[in-house]
Amino acid sequence: MSPEQAMEELNTIMAHAWMVRTFLKHADEIQEDEEMLEVPRMIFDYIRALEPSYQRKDTADYLRRARGKLPKLHRVADRFTQDFKRVSDHTNFQMAALSLSVCVRQIDRVLTAAENDIRVQAAPPTVLQPELDKEQPCT
């Protein structure tokens, strides 16, 4: 996957994450829970960190920022998935936890695909040497 394709696909994933953030930001059940409020804050921080480079179409900066902030987003998503039931086991929270987990997995998948493409493009070309027939003497 090219860096440009990765940036566009990641931007689509950000739209899904933003909807999870919006649900959680307005959920009355978490308003008094600082640990749970960290989830929509982290989603906001992650997306806003990517936004300027997306607007400039600076794929290198976008992908670097996306990879650099991913561990924090991953930790928050994991914690939310483990802990949301103490706030509410309503279907909305179940789906928000699932959706955020899927977003994080998809972000990692897209970044890995783009990084692999970049490595392949950066690798020096392999020159195949013809094998010499060992039975025939060189003249």
Write the SSE topology.
Blueprint: H1 3-25, H2 34-56, H3 59-87, H4 91-122
Helix pairs in contact: 1-2, 1-3, 1-4, 2-3, 3-4
What would you say this structure looks like, in words?
By secondary structure, this protein is mainly α. The chain has one domain (3-122): Up-down Bundle (Substrate Binding Domain Of Dnak, Chain:A, Domain 2). Helix content is 77%, strand content 0%. The longest helix has 32 residues, at 91-122. It starts with a helix and ends in a 17-residue tail after the last helix. The model has no long low-confidence stretch (mean pLDDT 89).
CATH architecture tag: Up-down Bundle
SS-based structural class?
Answer: mainly alpha
User: Residue share in helices?
Assistant: over 70%
Fraction of residues in β-strands: under 5%
Give the overall silhouette: elongated
